[in-house]
Each structure stands twice: as C-alpha cells, then as structure tokens.
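Hey all, quick one. A colleague (J.T.) asked me to put the N~5~-D-lysyl-L-ornithine job into the tracker so the inputs and the structure tokens live in one place instead of scattered across chat threads. No bug as far as I know, just bookkeeping. Sequence used:
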Amino acid sequence: MTRLTPDLIEGVPDDKIDLDSRLLKMTGKTVKGLAIEAAGLEEGDIDLTKFRVAVVPITSGLGVISGFSASVDAIVRRLGMESYVTSGTDVNGFAQAVEDDVDIIMMADDNKFVAYNTRTNCQTDNSFGTAMGYSVALKNAAGGLEGKDVLVIGAGFVGSWAVRILKDMGANVTVTDILVDKANALRDKYGVEVSTDIGSALPAHDYILNAAPVSFPGNLIRKGAVISTPGVPHYFDEEARMKAKAIIHDPLEIGTAVMAVNSAKYSSRGKE
Ligand code: 2YJ
C-alpha cells in the first residue's frame, strides 16, 4: 500500500461516494458482507457488536496522517463494532487500549498496518486484508472464479497474497510485475503463470486484480473487464471506465473492514 495522504482519505468512509451501493451493484455485497465472506464466515456466524476496538495513532516515521485514525475508527463502527481513537499516541495509546481491555487494537506506521486481537495474540495485516477483500469482491463480481483466467498486476505484499488467494479460489492466475524476479518467485512458489508483457496480458483478461500503484490506458482494457484495484493513486481514463463492466476501488475501507472482521473471527466472544 502506497502511503495514504489526507486528501485521499478525506471523509472516508464517505456517504457521498456511497461505497455500499456501488459494491452492491458490482458484487451483490456490501463492505460488511465482503468482509464477512473474506474472513471465511457467513452472516450470523459472528456478532460484531460484541467487539471493542481501539485505534492508536502512530507518530513514528513520516508521522500521523491527518484523518487516518478517524477514518479507520469510522469504518470499524460502520461494521457495528464499538470503536474509539486513543487520546495517547504510540506506546501510550497502546497501553491505554490494553488498560481499557479492548478486544482489537488497530495501528499503522509507514510499513505496516495491523489489527491485533488482544485475546488471542493474533494479528491481521492490511496487505492480507486488502488482497482478501479485493479477491472476494472480484470473485463475487465474476460470479465465481473457478477455472477463470485472472491477471494479478504487482507481485508486492498485496499481489503475493492475491496470487495465493485467487489460486485457492480455483482461478488460473497470471502474475506480472516490472520486477520480473518477483513474479517468477510467485510462479515457482504457487505454480502460476508469469507475463512479462502487460500490453498483451491486459487485453487478454476479463478479470484483473491490480495490486500495483499504477493505472492503465483504456485501449488496453478489454470490453466487459472486471477490475478489482486497491492501489492508490487511483485513476482510470474515460475509455477504461466505459469499457470495464466494473472497477472496484476504495482508498481504505475494504481492506480495513476485512482486517477488523478477520481479527474478530479469532475470538470466540462473538459467538457467545
Ligand atoms: O497513525 C497514523 O496516522 C499514521 N502512522 C498512519 C500511517 C498509514 N500507513 C500507510 O499509509 C502505510 N503505507 C501503510 C502500509 C500498509 C501496508 N499494507
């Protein structure tokens, strides 16, 4: 995940964008529905209202991103969980959350964004949450991925998880990265295909998971393509938007919601 900026997350979750309505049209599921499925659960398996979450602002490295903690907090509350942003930052905030006996602590520095389950000592990382959320969204938009060809663009943390997840969903995965060695490593590990020519791979695919912080000109997009694209900055030109059947994107909400629900899943409390 590229570093978010305040303007990218301004007002997230945003009622004006109305992510749930857009996702319902494209995938048949809301953010919460996708997150529940991404956690391997079904509606009714877990009572999210039983969980208390603390979001800890982290000042290290490049520092606090204005609005980040507030957005994470709002996303989690939208799922039905209780949540607040700690008044202290860093270790102070973490200590405050532990003292408050919360179930889940969420925090991000420049390299890592985690949801830590205090009951079970398990953590869910944003790269996994993002890859899982966007793979599940792609699967729902595609009406299942078993036997279908999927192109994963980017072999970084999110792309690597996506390759593994999509392969497990039964897709025929091709991965591409400007660093060919990284794509080759995934081929060797998961038995997927590698493409070194995005110019021919993109127009040959109906289903695309774009895990790279780049976008592509519409002339490379196949008509009716479904593009699940978590990367920021996010931009697809008019031709791409006209041709694609669906472009699934948001700057923070899907990945964060999957992290929170997946983290909650580790506890038995939600099933009491
Ligand atoms: O607490 C804050 O406001 C900041 N420390 C948040 C930093 C948010 N981090 C990022 O945007 C990183 N790029 C996250 C990397 C996650 C890797 N999947």
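Adding what we noticed when we looked at it: The pocket of N~5~-D-lysyl-L-ornithine is lined by residues 1, 3-4, 57-58, 64-65, 68-69, 108-113, 126-127, 157 (CB under 6 Å). The chain has eleven helices and eleven strands.
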